[in-house]
Amino acid sequence: MKPKTEAELAEMVAGLNEPMRIAGGGTRGVMAPDIAIETSGLTGIALYEPGALTLVAKAGTPVAEIEAVLDAEGQQLAFEPMDHRGLLGTSGTPTIGGVVAANVSGPRRVQAGACRDFLLGVRYVDGMGQIVKNGGRVMKNVTGYDLVKLMAGSWGTLGVLTEVSLKVLPKPEVSATLSVQVPDVTTGIAALSAALKSPFEVSGAAYDPDRGCALLRLEGFAQSVTYRLNQMKFVLSGFGEVTEQEQSGALWADLRDVAGFHSQNGDVWRISVKPTDAPEIVERIQADQTLLDWGGGLIWALVPVGTDLRAQLGAFEGHASIARAEPETIDKLGRFQPESAGISALTRGIRQQCDPRGVFNPGLMG
Questions:
Q1: Are the CB atoms for 192 and 298 separated by under 8 Å?
Q2: What is the bridge-based pairing of β-strands 318-324 and 267-273?
Q3: Once rounded to an integer, what is the mean pLDDT over residues 274-299?
Q4: What is the secondary structure of 163-200 as a DSSP string?
Q5: Measuring CA to CA, which residue among 324, 181, 204 is closest to residue 254?
Q6: First to last CA, the chain
Q7: Residue 103 has what DSSP assignment?
């Protein structure tokens, strides 16, 4: 089922008599390839006002198309969405609706925020086939349910996105990266924390055990970046040898897309924790390979096939979700961290209001 218009989609949903999975560009393969509603037919940039830093696009619009239009005006999606295809071994085309539905956010989240923070408005079809609009093209306060924020990260369980309004930002004039050679994850996280606490506006903070280094990105006007790089070298001097890296853009694209895991066998987990807890978490899981982003708040872990990483972790403050595994592992362990009783009751209540018939992505998020 591939509607070409919002009205056609609403009619399809209203006529559903069985559960249905929702698919965008098909790049994340989150559910079995059974019958689906595909939003890739809903394409096109409906509005772009560079002066107002605002873009409105249909949900099925390819991310690459949006980025090309923005780049021509010296602007960008500041939340730096990841391309999952290399990590997951999928094809398809990343769409802006899929990015919003999963709240996909890259390394710049430590400075600019997540996809959710740039979402101004949404249009979607709810579980009864009704067209719902929330938000607009400017930031503003809301009362009651903030459906704009609620739809970001809902993974298509509350409604089918048809259009999104986004705030965009100018592209930085210069991007530069410092590498700090560190002996272990504890020192690496300490270096990242020191940099993030400084006044020098870090826009990326990662630790790569394979390289044995903490990586810090600074962006902005050339003169500002030069000054901040020199100051940052003093901040980091006590942690290890500090060097400036070449090809900063390619380096952070690889970190964003977890390129080091692409050709490796095994399951991939995504763990969100307090950065200060990251060293202990890395020690607990004893993964084949790890990569830390967001100052240590995001841990990517490559583990043997079928590993129950949550059992290894035990109780911890945060959540662990499966990014890549065989269907039987996902069925057994669940893709997402189990919710507490209180959160689960709240989630069920929201889903009951948005999708009372339970037709959207059943079982995906509990």
A1: no
A2: antiparallel
A3: 96
A4: EEEEE-EEPPSEEEEEEEE-SSHHHHHHHHHHHHHSSS
A5: 204
A6: 25
A7: T
CA distance 287 to 179: 23
Nearest Cα to Cα of residue 217 among 186, 247, 237, 181: 247
DSSP string, 194-225: HHHHSSS-EEEEEEETTTTEEEEEEEESHHHH
8 CA to centre of own chain = 29
Query: How distant is the alpha carbon of residue 250 from its chain centre?
Result: 18
pTM comes to: 0.91
- The model's pLDDT over 85-106, given as tens digits with 9 standing for 90+, comes to 999 988 888 999 999 999 999 9
Over its C-alpha atoms, the chain yields an Rg (Å, rounded) of: 21
Residues of the chain with pLDDT > 90: what percent? 66
Q: Which two tokens stand for residue 282?
A: 């890395």
* Residue 46 in tokens: 């409906």
Strands 21-23 and 36-38: parallel
- Which domains, and CATH codes, for the chain? 6-170 (3.30.465.10), 174-256 (3.30.70.920), 259-333 (3.30.70)
Q: Which of 33-47, 155-169, 334-348 has the highest mean pLDDT?
A: 155-169
Q: Is 299 helix (H, G, I), strand (E, B) or coil?
A: strand
% the chain with pLDDT above 70: 93
pLDDT of residue 138: 47
* Nearest alpha carbon to residue 107 among 78, 69, 71: 78
**At 169, is the pLDDT very low, low, confident or very high (cuts 50, 70, 90)?**
very high
- What the block records as the tokens of 83 is 């391309």
How distant, in Å, are the alpha carbons of 204, 227, 236, 246, 282 from that of 213? 14, 22, 12, 15, 15
Residue 19: the pLDDT is: 83
Angle 332-258-155 from CA coordinates, rounded to 5°: 50
